[in-house]
């Protein structure tokens, strides 16, 4: 087996375990207990959890985000994005990414709560950059100068703030979230034309993490979530 094949096999095993654990995360949070319950569902030995995730929950959340990002790219590849205007491409990418986790809001909240802990902010930034970078690539971005960074920082702000809004959106078909998304895109589309773009982009990039920190404060503990689900 080649190194590439071995890495691909490990990725698939990790994703299978994370997928199984998703049934338990709403009750136990992103914890080793959730991963062990997922392993039991797959009839895996408990030692497999430590083998597949030596980095613990941090590594499991990375797997979850990257797995969903890959699904997003697959979905976007099936669409005729080149025929759309750039703002439509970006809106479609964000909608696609959020729609993939439409039935996993409690799981996403728990992941966001973990990622907004002070020690995890660098990881949060890295994962967000990975997501928006894939969105821009799918949208056909070919920039190589400072615009490359600016576009990603701006989209990080749009995506992050829309994510937080979407998590509490009860409107039919998330219509309110998509209207919010369109307004945010409309606002930032003008920013590259303004002097001091990078400075402004930085402010937008910080938005999801400020909002995420507020969300983390009101996150229910696993015990409270368990009581809510059992009520």
Write up what this structure looks like.
With 231 residues, the chain is mainly alpha-helical. The protein has one domain. The chain has twelve helices and no strands. Helix 9 runs parallel beside helix 11. The radius of gyration is 18 Å and the shape is globular. Pfam families: COQ9 (PF08511). One of its GO terms (biological process) is ubiquinone biosynthetic process. One of its GO terms (molecular function) is lipid binding. Keywords: Lipid-binding, Transit peptide, Ubiquinone, Ubiquinone biosynthesis.
Strand content: under 5%
What count of structural domains? Answer: 1
Percentage of residues in helical conformation: over 70%
Backbone CA Rg: 18 Å
Average pLDDT, all residues: 85
- Report the strand count: 0
Spans of 5+ residues with little confidence (pLDDT < 50)? 194-231
Tell me the span between the first and last alpha carbons.
50 Å
Give a quick account of the main beta sheet: strands, pairing sense, barrel closure: none
Order of helix and strand elements from N to C terminus = HHHHHHHHHHHH
Described by the principal axes of the CA atoms, the overall outline is: globular
The number of helical runs is 12
What quaternary form is this? Answer: single chain
> What structural class should be given to the helix and strand makeup?
mainly alpha
Pathway: Cofactor biosynthesis; ubiquinone biosynthesis
Domain COQ9 C-terminal: 121-191
GO molecular function: lipid binding
Family: Belongs to the COQ9 family.
